[in-house]
Design brief:
With 133 residues, the protein is an alpha+beta fold. Helix content is 31%, strand content 34%. It contains three helices and six strands, in the order βββαββααβ. The strands form two sheets. The chain has a three-stranded antiparallel beta sheet, with no helix packed on it. Strand 1 and strand 2 (12-17) form a beta hairpin. The protein is globular and about 50 Å long.
């Protein structure tokens, strides 16, 4: 078992990770009858993609002795209707570390082939940009 999800009230849930007991809460978005005060379930999906990308990049950096200390991402999720679903996830990954061209290719490929990226339906557009500072 990975987690439990319990309905609270007012379209909110509490999600508990079994192993660590850490919790996150979700709220329905404003455009879908919620208050929009917390991550929505679809926000978490989009954010999970960026988190997974950065995590596997960190693993690859460690394995390949690539300096990895200044990496962050911004995430934009776009919704479609009929049916209501995530249509596009836009991610900008900013890298402050100085990587060679070869290291950039390795890290970008690693990010784009992370487990979450490979698990999302192919109809969800993944628009990924890398910004090197």
């Amino acid at each position: 078992m990975t987690s439990t999800v319990t309905y609270q009230t007012n379209l909110r849930t509490e999600c508990t990770h079994i192993a660590s007991k850490s919790t996150i809460h979700t709220d329905a978005p404003i455009d879908n009858k919620g208050k929009g005060e917390l991550f929505s379930p679809t926000d978490i999906v989009a954010t999970a993609l960026a988190s997974c990308m950065i995590t596997v990049m960190g693993i690859k950096a460690e394995q390949s002795n690539i300096h990895f200390t200044q990496v962050n991402a911004t995430v934009t999720k776009l919704m479609a209707s009929d049916p209501r679903r995530i249509s596009t996830i836009e991610i900008e990954i900013e890298v402050g570390d100085r990587w060679s061209e070869k290291e950039q290719k390795i890290m970008e490929n690693t990010a784009k082939t992370c487990p979450v990226a490979q698990s999302l339906h192919p109809d969800i557009k993944q628009e990924i940009a890398f910004i090197y500072k």
